[in-house]
Design a protein that fits this description.
Blueprint: H1 7-13, H2 16-20, H3 28-37, H4 39-52, E1 59-63, H5 69-76, E2 81-86, H6 89-101, E3 108-112, E4 126-129, H7 140-148, E5 153-159, H8 163-176, H9 186-196, E6 200-205, E7 209-215
Parallel strand pairs: 1-2, 1-4, 2-3, 4-5
Antiparallel strand pairs: 5-7, 6-7
């Protein structure tokens, strides 16, 4: 299992509407609030598409796809096939509805399952895992399986501990939401890349975490 406890699954299965509101400007108050206090989510979203570049005819896998916003954006930008996988049934239902609403339902497939146990019978040009490693205690298996799918690019985000932000986040998620979270260091991410077979990688440090682009070829 990718997620060893049910805290994260229970939490995300209960908030598809609230989570998707992060990406929507339909409610300006919520949108401005999220822009101010959840700037890291926008940074990793922008980083994803900056690094992916031209995705015309690409096959994309979105691990922990949530409400499907990144998956849908890939489809809108010309990807021929996008697969989103998430362990929260409510998120998958929401993502399917959103894909139809944006006219890319035929390009997108959303799977409610665990990434590590799901038997993929295809390879992908781009694999993303944004906001996933926050909830993964043992990330080695995820890296290895991603590498086995032979993507030309693996894009991911990782939180890092900072005294103020990290402490309040730990209290908010672990004690209130019963959803453990995990932090990373640059050295740890580099080792994960090398051990999995991603020798070429770019790691950018941000205020509250790291952004990664990795690949098996330059």
């Amino acid at each position: 299992m990718l997620f060893e406890n049910k805290g994260a699954q229970k939490y995300f299965d209960s908030i598809p509407d609230q989570w998707d509101a992060i990406y929507s400007n339909e409610n300006w108050f919520k949108f401005l609030f999220n822009r101010l206090f959840r700037s890291g989510i926008y940074a990793r979203y922008n980083f994803t598409f900056e690094q992916a570049g031209d995705v015309t005819n690409a096959a994309v896998l979105d691990i922990g796809c949530g409400s499907g916003r990144a998956s849908i954006e890939f489809a809108k930008r010309g990807a021929r096939r996008v697969v989103g996988i998430d362990f929260a049934p409510a998120m998958i239902d929401f993502a399917e509805q959103m894909a139809e609403q944006f006219g890319v339902g035929r390009k997108c497939e959303f799977i409610c399952n665990d990434f590590l146990s799901y038997p993929f019978n295809e390879q992908f040009d781009i694999i993303i895992a944004q906001g996933v490693f926050d909830y993964v205690k043992h990330p080695e298996a995820l890296f290895r399986k991603a590498a086995q799918l032979s993507p030309r690019m693996f894009i991911a985000s990782f939180p890092r501990f900072t005294p103020v932000w990290g402490l309040q986040r730990h209290i908010r998620y672990y004690y209130i939401k019963r959803c453990p979270i995990y932090n990373y260091t640059r050295d740890q991410i580099e080792r994960l890349c090398l051990d999995a077979g991603f020798p070429h990688h770019l790691i950018l440090e941000r205020k509250h975490g790291f952004l990664l682009r990795a690949g098996q070829q330059p």
